[in-house]
Amino acid sequence: MTHDVFAAHRPRLLGVAYGILGELPEAEDVVQDAWLRWQAADRDEVRDATGFLITTTTRLAIDRLRSARARRETYVGTWLPDPLVSDPDDPDDPAVAAIEAERLSVALLVALERLNPVERAVLVLRDAFDLEYAEIADALQLSPGNARQIAKRARDRIGDDARRRPIAPEEQQRLLVAFMAAAHAGDVDVLRELLAADAIQFSDGGGHGNVARTPIAGAEQIARFYAGVRRTGAMPRDLVPQLVRVNGEIGVRLTSRAAGQYAITLLDVADGRIVAIRNFANPARFAGDRTGDRPGG
């Protein structure tokens, strides 16, 4: 019975930990630690299993986030949250479904990096998981009024970037396919047309491969970057693209027939133009790929 109760809550707990941490292996470790606390708990003292598990997971995740932030300060290049990659035609993974259902997009996770650990936890619990302020207050040892004030302050700090209107999957896919074709060809003119003038590209390579270590800002600069990649042959020529879901949005995984998985690309779109490109190219950050066997792997 103890295991059944925890198993029923596990996908949601993983979502909470992932939302607070932005790293899937760390989130899975937190959930494992929460399981150990659950096993050791006195059942006569636990009146609300859900409240106990959410509180335990949240506090463990906050503690782990504080140490994780120190590591991120020494990370080589741009750090991006772990992408949670799934097959568009296979919605059956409960962990993936829970995270996607709570709208934990990569854009939101990036914006949450601006917050301190308590602000981040409050916003994740309230805006992503719809907990009441009284429940959040109990989990974080705050008053409900204080939890409400922290949530408002956190929303003000992350701004509107993470709360853009959802884009129709067909539009997302159309722009993604067009962008990948133009980037592969190094077609500067087409790239300029696809990108917003103030578009920005972030690439998380962790020091691996030919990956830009700083963001590239502006449509012209991004277009010329891909033209240069094409001209110099910096990218493998045997890459096979495959559409995937990345935190619930349409992205593409690039796989080298010779070397296996190469990168994952996700776009942010607004008003029919690409406003941000996020490239995940650090092999150590592919723990969130739940699609099983991969071409060339």
From TrEMBL:
Keyword Transcription regulation applies: yes
Coiled-coil segments: none
Transmembrane parts of this sequence: none
SUPFAM superfamilies on file: NTF2-like, Sigma2 domain of RNA polymerase sigma factors, Sigma3 and sigma4 domains of RNA polymerase sigma factors
Every RNA polymerase sigma-70 region domain range: 6-69
Domain of life the protein comes from: Bacteria
Similarity-based family: Belongs to the sigma-70 factor family. ECF subfamily.
Record's protein name: RNA polymerase, sigma-24 subunit, ECF subfamily
Natural source organism: Conexibacter woesei (strain DSM 14684 / CCUG 47730 / CIP 108061 / JCM 11494 / NBRC 100937 / ID131577)
